[in-house]
Amino acid sequence: MASVPQCADTVGVEEEFLLVDTASGRTTVRADAVLARVADTDLTKFHAELAGTQVEAATGPCTSVAALGDALRLARKTLSEAAAELGLGLLSRGTPPKPSKQPIVSRSNPRFRRVLDTYAGVVEHYEASGCHVHVGVPDRETGVRVLNHVRPWLPTLLALSANSPDRGYASWRMVQQSRFPGSGVAPEFATAAEYDAAVARLVACGTIVDTAQTFWLARLSPKLPTVEFRCADAAETVEDAVLQAALSRALVHTACQGDKLPPVRDDVCAAAVWTASRYGLDGPAVDPWHERRVPATALLERLVEHVTPALAGRGELDLVHELVQRRV
Asked: Any idea which UniProt keywords this protein has (predicted)?
């Protein structure tokens, strides 16, 4: 079995869930009540989100996708049971079919208040939920090289996850997220210092509230020694989350092996993100290297082929093939 570099050893997932009133089907501002009924474990931590209609479960670092799946299942079970005690359901989807009619952002949290004051109407009804994957890296310089490598593949990970259809879009969540300044695929950076300077510049310009907040689809985690993939809609199933995690970690592994890809243009990456949000896997995608439309499933096949050695080295190739087939 091929050895796996340190930077691709651990993987963890943050899942955002929506709380739905079972009688009306609408999201409801009950996050505090649900979180008061759950307790952190060695496997998972539970958190509040900007929207009071959302809760988050974050796994610890796992070295196997089997352990990750176990942690995700337990977290969902814990939150579902706590919600059910209050007459609520737990919804794992990019956007709610029936959004809340009441204000969703509390001003009691100072940082949330700053976010609301900064983005005003863009964030007042923002209930978009994502599946965020963290992959361990040994240092920030390696992390920046990984970010450069994964840029062309982020739209494909979005298309694979798209499950928030609305107004003709496969991922309405991504449309909502695109309203924030600096959303989408990050530019290339030569060094971690250059990356940090770009984030600091956005703070100085007033388009993000602090250095812990960026809207890029992949970034260096502001708190953990990881690269954080933020492109996917909230996973409908644990298996969908595991698939995102396996592919993300395999991309990091491949980047750490030194494999280089031809550079891609920022505007073409933006076109690829929009196309992925519009069509998901059921229509065209943008090939970022040839700068033209191709079937989305063709790019997904190319992604799996690109990371096949990394998946095979961990014994995850058959699992990924099986999970991909369920999505296409």
From this structure: ATP-binding, Ligase, Nucleotide-binding
Residue 185 structure tokens: 């695929």
Find out whether 177 and 171 touch, Cβ atoms under 8 Å.
Answer: no
Contact 151, 218 (CB under 8 A): yes
- Its pTM stands at 0.95
CATH label of the domain that carries residue 48: 3.30.590.20
Question: What are the Cα distances from residue 263, in Å, to 56, 153, 188, 260, 291?
Answer: 35, 12, 9, 9, 12
pLDDT (tens digit per residue) in 240-281: 999 999 999 999 999 998 777 889 999 999 999 999 999 999
Domain holding 137, by residue range, is 6-327
CA distance 140 to 143: 5
- The total number of structural domains in the chain stands at 1
pLDDT digits (tens, 9 = 90+) for 63-113: 999 999 999 999 999 999 999 999 999 999 999 999 998 889 877 788 888
DSSP of 161-208: H--B-BTTBSBHHHHHHTTSTT-BSPPP-SSHHHHHHHHHHHHHHTSS
Residue of 169, 171, 168, 147 lying closest to 158 (CA atoms): 171
